[in-house]
Structures are given as C-alpha cells and as structure tokens.
Amino acid sequence: MQVSILDPASRSDRHTHNRMVPGGFLAPFLLVTWSYFIQYVQEYAHEPEKSAGYLLTGTLAAFAMGRFSAAYLMRFLDPRILMGAYSLINVGLLLMGVFTMFELK
To answer: Is there a contact between 75 and 2 (Cβ–Cβ < 8 Å)?
Structure first.
C-alpha cells in the first residue's frame, strides 16, 4: 500500500494531535509581543497612538486569518507541507521588509 504525504488521514501519529491542541489554542494569548506593539510604533516609527492601534488591529486580523486558513487547508494538505509553505512565505515577507523602504502614511 502506497501512502501519500499529502493525505492527512494516512499519518501514523494522528493520536498526538489531541495533546497539542491546548498549547496551540493558548499560544496567541501567551505572547507578550503585542502588549508592547503600540509603544514600539510610537517610539521607533514616530506614529501616533491611533495609527499604532490600526496597525495592531491589522496584525491581529492577519493572525486570525492565518489560523483559520491553515485549519481549512489542513483538510487537504499534510501539516508539514503547509508549515513549510508558510515558512517560505514568512521568509519572503521578512526579506521584503528588510530590503524595501516605504512610508506607513
């Protein structure tokens, strides 16, 4: 029998998923980086508090969309492949942020 890595149902470690759910659910609530985001934007980007709040809202919305889209895509793709694709996308976004200069206004 040939097993495809794209088929999530063929994974032999299916039982480990249930143990990871609480940690995955609590992860966004335990991050403290967002608690300093508004002060960081005000101090280093010299943006007003209102703009920093909009940026914070955007990052939280992007995080939520990523979570829900990943949960949907894991129905069709192996989680390891999805994680690799998300990693490559994030590396590309980081490189874009490092090598481009743009104004927030």
So the answer is: no
